[in-house]
């Protein structure tokens, strides 16, 4: 790994009746993993990105998906490849 890696965690709130469709659309986004969900429409999502702009773009994409009420950034970490080899 030669570049910085950004890890971001989001909570996505979706309409419960559209939860399956929202999850299907989320799975189409690059670098995104679904980790937890609840029957009331809450999802925990983790993103891997090369920079902050890519994270912001992904959050905007998620917020624009049909059935999504809100996507909120909860955590962001920057992994330095130079530190990973120690």
3D architecture notes:
28% of the residues lie in helices and 42% in strands. It has 86 residues and is of the alpha+beta class. The protein has one domain (5-74): 2-Layer Sandwich (Alpha-Beta Plaits). A four-stranded antiparallel β-sheet has the order 2-3-1-4. The chain is elongated and about 45 Å long. The two termini are 13 Å apart. The model has no long low-confidence stretch (mean pLDDT 92).
Would you identify the CATH architecture?
2-Layer Sandwich
Q: Class in CATH?
A: Alpha Beta
Number of domains: 1
Basic shape: elongated
Range of strand content? 35-45%
How many β-strands, per DSSP?
4
Structural class: alpha+beta
Alpha carbon gap, first and last residue:
13 Å
Overall mean pLDDT score? 92
Lateral arrangement of strands in the main beta sheet: 2-3-1-4
Order of helices and strands: EHEEHEH
SSE order and pairing:
Blueprint: E1 5-14, H1 19-26, E2 32-37, E3 42-49, H2 52-63, E4 68-79, H3 81-84
Antiparallel strand pairs: 1-3, 1-4, 2-3
Quick recap:
About 30% of the residues lie in helices and about 40% in strands.
Which key phrases capture this entry?
86 residues; alpha+beta; Alpha-Beta Plaits; four-stranded antiparallel beta sheet; 3 helices; 28% helix
């Amino acid at each position: 790994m030669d570049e910085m890696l950004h890890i971001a965690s989001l909570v996505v709130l979706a309409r419960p009746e559209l939860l399956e469709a929202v999850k299907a659309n989320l799975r189409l986004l690059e670098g995104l993993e679904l980790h937890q969900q609840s029957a009331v429409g809450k999802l925990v999502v983790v993103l891997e990105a090369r920079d902050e702009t890519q994270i912001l773009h992904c959050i905007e994409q998620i917020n624009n998906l049909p059935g999504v009420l809100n996507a909120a950034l909860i955590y962001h970490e920057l992994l330095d490849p130079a530190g990973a080899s120690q």
